Amino acid sequence: MDTLVTTNEMVTFLAVATILGLFAAMVRYSWRVAAGAMAAQGAPRFHDVVRRLGIDLARVDDERTLRAAAVSVRRCLACRHQEACDAWLADRGRKGVPPGCPNESFLREQSQH
User: Fold this and answer.
1) 8 Å CB contact between 101 and 79
2) Considering the chain, what is the average pLDDT of its residues?
3) With 0-12 CB in 10 A as exposed, 13-18 as middle and 19+ as buried, what is 86?
4) Alpha-carbon separation of residue 49 from 20, 35, 104 (angstroms)
């Protein structure tokens, strides 16, 4: 009876499935915590940069620009130049976009409208 699954094989399969399920739940929870922490830091920063440049995203009515704004927020959340951005925001006399900003093209495009 080669096609029958033994009790040991079934127990092993269930144990592995349970461990993988717990691991997936742990990863999902960790991602939510990390995403929440990033959102607490990056989203307000992006809003401050946009406001400082005089960009009014509330007036945007085309889907392409809204999608680009959403991508820009995600880039801001994962940006490695947050300290430089904070320094740029603190110095009211600085012009242009923050140094090293991954959203430079989006911000320049929107600041011209």
Assistant:
1) yes
2) 85
3) middle
4) 42, 20, 11
User: Is the pLDDT at 51 greater than 60, yes or no?
Assistant: yes
pLDDT above 90 as % of the chain: 40
Sign for the CA dihedral angle at 54, 57, 60, 64 comes to positive
Say how far residue 84 (Cα) sits from the centre of its chain.
18
Interatomic CA distance for residues 49 and 64, integer angstroms: 20
Residue type, 69: A
> How many residues comprise the chain?
113
- 35's tokens: 């995403």
Q: What are phi and psi of 24, to 5 degrees?
A: -60, -40
- Identity at 2, one-letter amino acid code: D
* Interacting residues of 102 by C-beta distance below 8 A, sequence separation 6+: 75, 76, 79, 81
Tell me the torsion sign for CA atoms 44, 78, 74, 76: positive
* pTM above threshold 0.90: no
